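Chain A, query sequence.
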Amino acid sequence: MQLAFVGASDQKMFSQSEKDLRYRNCEMCEVSDPELWMKYHHGESPPSCPPTDDPEISDGEKDLYNTMRETNLLLTAREQPLEVEWDETEARHEIDAPP
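Chain A, predicted structure.
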């Protein structure tokens, strides 16, 4: 089940625990606050973009940085459902295990 947390107006509609659940179970592209999503999944904000006015950084380096950042976000979004499935499987095995 994919749920999206739309925005500020939803703060009145959903409890904090519902919001927590939504952000933990959604992909980053499904939420209105990607930085908050990153905090739920990684405990910190995403790295900032490289300075665009720094003459020491070439256009190629900026392009590489942006490509790597996009790849990281994509892989993170794919990893999250696998982690949820792993946790659910682990919990099922704990329940099914004999005492």
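Residues 49 and 66 are 8 Å apart (CA to CA). Residues 1-11 have pLDDT under 50 and may be disordered.
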